[in-house]
Amino acid sequence: MADSGRLALIHGEIDGELDGRQRAELASALLADPEAQALREDLRRVCAALDALEGVDPPPQLRRSILDALPQSTSSRARSWWSAPRPASIRSVSATE
Questions:
Q1: Cα 74 to the chain's mean position, in Å?
Q2: How far, in Å, CA of 6 to CA of 29, rounded?
Q3: Is 72 helix (H, G, I), strand (E, B) or coil?
Q4: Furthest-apart CA atoms within the chain: distance in Å
Q5: Which pLDDT belongs to residue 19?
Q6: 92 is a domain residue
Q7: Is 81 domain-assigned?
Q8: Which helix (H) or strand (E) holds 16?
Q9: Which of 5, 17, 20, 34 could form a disulfide with 12 if both were Cys (CB 3.0 to 4.6 A apart)?
Q10: What is the number of structural domains in the chain?
Q11: Up-side HSE of residue 46: CA atoms within 13 Å toward CB?
Q12: Whole-angstrom Cα Rg for the chain
């Protein structure tokens, strides 16, 4: 199995995120490691197969069923930080942006 550094480079290559130095590093690693070459080809095939799949919209009731399955909290502390009142100093900074 390729080490985590090589695996990260392979993923980066597939995602088109490598710079020139990283591409050179991956090329060198692949020349030295047939197992990493095979893994790269397997991952490329999987990604190509996934890219070929047609997009599907989720059923309309999915969002509601997920939200219903989440634990409910009645505590006032459970409010999100962004919905809580902001101190005047933060409000004034936000207003000037």
A1: 32
A2: 7
A3: coil
A4: 62
A5: 96
A6: no
A7: no
A8: none
A9: 17
A10: 1
A11: 10
A12: 24
Indicate whether 66 belongs to any domain.
no
Is the full-model pTM beyond 0.70? no
SS3 content of the chain, % helix, strand, coil (to 5): 70, 0, 30
Q: Percent of the chain beyond pLDDT 70?
A: 73
35 domain residue, yes or no: yes
User: What is the span of the domain harbouring residue 41?
Assistant: 4-52
Residue 28 in tokens: 């060198």
Count of CA atoms in the C-beta half-sphere (13 A) of 86 = 10
Calculate ∠ Cα 79-82-87, nearest 5°: 105
Is residue 10 within 8 Å of residue 36, measured between CB atoms? yes
pLDDT of 57 higher than 80? yes
> Does residue 54 register a pLDDT over 70?
yes
Report the C-alpha gap between 86 and 96 in whole angstroms.
15
